[in-house]
């Protein structure tokens, strides 16, 4: 069976295994306790002195080039509990290949500069038999960065938990397309038994707002609460500054995600149009968790995401500027 090449190594992140390992360790070491929640719900309820957070086997983390999002992603990975993991699911959006459902990998291994990760072929085939998933071609797999950018972090965290690479839990990569709300719920239903199983860990890959004319998203909320799209050539806005509006909209989405309600997530995205590139993988997992928690399947926590880090590539002051937002969260399940 084929090995998916680390096609973005050497550009989006270093191809040197030793340098990459050192970078990841540095970012992880920069995460200090207590880790506090930053969302409306989590800010008053979350202050973790123990990392990883017990039972936090589901995380959301960004997938940009490591010079941009590597430090922010560390906050999710430092919180991630792999103590019972026998399998790791990785869900990310499709940036280049159009599909309306979700796709699985045909590969046997995923390459990283730190070492290869084995794909769980049995679980992949089990999911494919449900009829809810297709297979992606190897070139489609290698073109997509949303999954690859998590592989070094996954390898690093597994190496901190398991004695050697031969004992690492296998990986189940899932690329989620431009799904409807109904499809998200259907995929969530298929994944619900896996989410309920404490031996399964999950990583959801997503950046948050992609703001700027180059992203075709210039949504702005003024001081009175009125929202509009800014046009090129408009004078600089200061009340509030554009970057403050971006933060406000991102936190509306963060707060909706922290409710644990899939519909609340859909509603805020519909209202703001926020360009959260992993909105569909997040929606799938939220729908699945909501089913698990609603069914009282003996889970350890409430399954609601707690956001613990928010960063941006830059602070936008002019309409001609642009930025991408990065957020990290965990859920105890």
From TrEMBL:
Q: Which Pfam families match?
A: Memo
* Matching CDD domains: MEMO_like
What are the transmembrane regions? Answer: none
Q: By its UniProt entry, which InterPro entries does this protein fall under?
A: MEMO1_fam
The organism's superkingdom is given as: Eukaryota
PANTHER family xrefs: PROTEIN MEMO1 (PTHR11060)
Family stated for the protein in its record: Belongs to the MEMO1 family.
Q: Which HAMAP family match?
A: MEMO1
This chain belongs to the protein called MEMO1 family
Organism of derivation: Elsinoe ampelina
